[in-house]
Write a structure and sequence with these properties.
Largest sheet: 35 strands, mixed
Structural class: mainly beta
Distance between the termini: 6 Å
Shape: globular
Strand content: 35-45%
Oligomer: single chain
């Protein structure tokens, strides 16, 4: 029995708010690609597969011929094909056959400095190995590999790798930081990194003004900007200098049966960053990367709010994630908003976090109507389900950000989500929720969930959190659930270890309800 029982009030209106009105039978629709059967083999345009001949011109000719034909299939046959950056054009399906690899050159002079976007801001970048802008009906398919040769771009932290790996990298060249704990590919990279040079495209600056920090402007492997009807299928994308796949301000995107790989030590080695896009499916894919695996973004701070393009109407299903800072992630650059995202039947093994939602003051934007079901997690390093408004990482694209502790346009909002049938076998914490004093995290329902973790749940600055039939198998039993400065919290039919000393501890807030019984601030619920 719960001690210190007080009068029960009705929370019917609150419960009705939390119950999201949606149906898994009415998922977003995504328009599909369609291509002519005409094929254009890159060998016919002079491409040579010997790992030394640069085939940029030959492959570009094949892509242009296919586009001029009204579309078709550009075939990359068996072999290793060395190339520089490639532009994908409308109505072209770049088909990389099984046993074929597009390997991008380690000659950095082949990558021009261009006006791009990174971490939600307009930035100077090295040209991406594969890119398209304003293209329509495009695809990369097949069973082959696209390799970004990322180690030529990356720095390396000593603590992230084995001693033998570190010694080999130092022996290969480059320079070390003054404390000897970080390796840089060049002195130029070191100076830009240690002096925190900005890559932001500022008024009055030319692209040539960034030449002295070129090595620092690591390219994303694939960037598709303002494109329509996109298909990525069957291919392995790997070894990017920064993010692997970055669709930006695009629509009708299908990513199916792809493998995305980056080394665990790769800084900003995200798998997939879907930014300010609408109508998309990510299904039957495998991710094993050095940062967030499947990530939803929509621009950063004032620039993202002015863009005003939420990432919306997405389906993420049947995916397997190995290493990554999060399995499915929203933020922290979510200033344009996110809504109508459906996540189901995914497996996370060994990620830092499972379902991860992150933001900070100054971002602004509304993240809402996110639904997840049938998610299995194992050996999660930190939290299984994570919401935090205090993301305190310093970015190369930060610039000056106005921080206001009152509610305004720069205040991020997370609200109206429902997660069900989540199983986590091993994590430091099952659920962590931390909002802002001016913006609590609102109306999140988690139901029919099992959490085998060290710590059960911590709810801080939250409003309208419902834990419905959640089974806690936590090592910490005093308390299993901590609620601090929160209100309208419902815990219905919890299951917990029989030797629990203290299930619930409440400090601050009001309307904390366990199985129809209110618990006052300062009181504890014991069994």
């Amino acid at each position: 029995m719960i001690k210190s029982i007080v009068a029960v009030i009705t929370l019917a209106a609150f419960s009705a708010t939390v119950h999201a009105q949606f149906s898994w039978n009415r998922l977003p629709e995504v328009k599909k690609t369609s291509f002519k059967k005409d094929s254009f083999n890159i060998v016919k345009y002079g491409a040579v597969s010997n790992g030394t001949v640069l085939n940029t011109e030959s492959i570009t000719k094949a892509i242009k011929a296919c586009n001029a034909n009204g579309g078709g299939v550009v075939v990359v046959p068996f072999g290793i094909w060395l190339t520089g950056p490639l532009e994908l054009k409308s109505n072209v399906n770049l088909y990389v056959q099984k046993g074929a690899m597009l390997l991008f050159t380690n000659d950095k002079t082949k990558y021009e400095i261009v006006a791009g976007s990174y971490e939600g801001r307009s930035s100077a970048r090295n040209q991406s190995p594969i890119w398209a802008k304003n293209a329509e009906n495009i695809a990369i398919t097949g069973g082959g590999v696209i390799d970004g040769n990322g180690d030529i771009w990356r720095g390396l932290t000593k603590s992230a790798v084995t001693e033998s790996f570190w010694n080999a990298r130092v022996k290969s060249g480059g320079v070390l930081s003054s404390d000897g704990k970080r390796w840089y590919p060049s002195e130029q990279f070191k100076v830009a990194s240690e002096t925190k040079r900005s890559m932001l495209l500022e008024p009055g600056k030319l692209l040539s003004d960034y030449t002295d920090m070129k090595d620092f402007l690591r390219p994303n492997l694939l960037v598709l900007t303002q494109c329509k009807r996109i298909l990525l299928e069957g291919v392995t994308f790997q070894n990017s200098g920064a993010w692997n796949l970055h669709p930006l301000m695009s629509e009708d995107l299908i990513i199916r049966n792809v493998t995305v790989k980056n080394p665990e030590y790769s800084h900003n080695g995200d798998g997939l960053d879907i930014e300010s896009c609408k109508n998309f499916i990510v299904e039957d894919c495998v991710f094993d990367v050095g940062d967030d695996a499947i990530c939803i973004k929509s621009g950063k701070d004032e620039e993202g709010r002015k863009r005003g393009m939420p990432t919306q109407n997405g389906i993420i299903r049947n995916n397997l994630v190995y290493k990554g800072h999060g399995g499915v992630v929203v933020g922290s650059e979510m200033s344009g908003g996110t809504k109508n995202i459906f996540i189901e039947n995914c497996l996370f093994i060994g990620t830092d976090k499972g379902l991860r939602f992150k933001s900070a003051r100054g971002r602004g934007g509304v993240v809402e109507k996110i639904y997840a079901r049938n998610i299995q997690m194992r050996n999660i390093d930190q939290e299984a389900i994570f919401f935090d408004m205090h993301y305190a990482v310093t970015f190369a694209t930060d610039g000056v950000r106005k921080i206001d502790t009152t509610f305004g346009e720069g205040t991020p909002v997370f609200r109206d989500m429902e997660f069900e049938n989540i199983v986590c076998d091993g994590a430091k914490k099952g659920i962590f929720v931390r909002g802002l004093p001016e913006a609590a995290i609102q109306n999140i329902r988690i139901k029919n969930t099992t959490l085998i973790t060290d710590i059960g749940a911590e709810l801080i600055l939250a409003d309208g959190i419902v834990l419905d039939h959640v089974k806690f198998e936590s090592k910490q039993k005093d308390p299993v659930v901590l609620v601090h400065n929160s209100k309208n919290i419902e815990i219905n039919k919890p299951v917990y270890p029989t030797d629990t000393k203290l299930f619930l501890k409440v400090s601050g807030g009001n309307n904390i309800k366990v199985d129809q019984t209110l618990v006052n601030t300062g009181e504890v619920a014991k069994w």
